[in-house]
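Input record (Table S2, row 396):
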Amino acid sequence: MGANHLMGNYARQEIAFEHGRGVFLYDADGNRYLDAVGGLAVNLLGHAHPAITEAVSAQAAALLHTSNLYRIPLQEQLATTLTALCNMESAFFCNSGAEANEAAIKLARLHGHRREIGAPHIVVMENAFHGRTMATLTATGNRRAQAGFEPLLGGFVRCPWDDLDALRTIASQRSDVVAVMLEPIQGEGGIRQLQPGRLAGIRELCDAQGWLLICDEIQSGMGRTGHFLASMDEGVTPDIVTLAKGLGNGVPIGACLARGDAATLFAPGNHGSTFGGNPLACRAALAVLAVLEKENLAAQAAATGEWLISELRQRTAGLQCVREIRGRGLMIGIELDRDVPDLVAAARARGLLINVTAGNVIRLLPPLVLTRDEAAQVADLLTPLIAALETAPEAT
Ligand code: PLP
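Output record (pyridoxal-5'-phosphate complex):
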């Protein structure tokens, strides 16, 4: 494939796709694959959605980039739309999830310094994934991802997942904490949810302590779980929300949104991005948001996801190798009793693209446009593969 001049940081599968349409991808030989990965939660509207093609083509013909030296009306329009959708007040635009989280981390530190905390700390969760830049890698709770990149950054405190008592203990023992940063549903960590009411409990503690609540909704947001944000499913409004992935349906764009004090912390010169929020990316994101609303895709994702989870549970009932099927909307994890290094290739050979995270969790993040029929195809293709594990010798 002529890949010898690429750095070796990805374990890529031996396949490339030539074009896509809806939830399907096609390789050069015309083979069709049902894409239940959705570009890792990016292709909300599937592939080659005509509204996005039209918006991106028109904007490319008019103006790609001017820089943040000048006003960018499309960026202003996107900030208005997105802050309204998220109950936030201001937006900073960048190009990826890690950058959105970097902005959130910097806001938390500014918040701390404003309160005269000299070395502000952010509480982050075990098993979290927040990105690969040095700060977000430090915030990420995966030793394998961090190994070799030490020294990591200071300023983070790790807390067990879904453990409000542990968070209360941190509050009672430290006076240098300024924020809690978490994914409302952990994605890379294995589609791990908080207990119902837990996020509200964390919100309460943050209010009592004067801490900012930062919700990384880069994977869980954009309508995937039913509401526009997964934190909204719990009736919780964070102080800072980060988005990326699906926001541009494949055109790179990230956003850090804030409300209250956090909304006004950045001043000219203390943060920026050359490409961030350029006309092309903002036009794409505006088109994505318009389609999401017009087609009511968050509600569709919630209904299709609920159906698919219950269907998968029924079809795998009694299988010892399935520990749990969990998730919300179209963010679904199937936890197995063993690591499954060959399952992704086996599914691909049957025309289904899936992802496995944390070694033993099948992760489904299909486009939100997935229909009930297409969800049934996912179940048809996947369940025999899971059933076959039952009789296969265990992978080492
Ligand atoms: N935060 C979460 C919850 C993610 O799932 C990801 C990517 O998987 C990131 C942050 C990092 O996003 P990016 O790869 O765009 O930097």
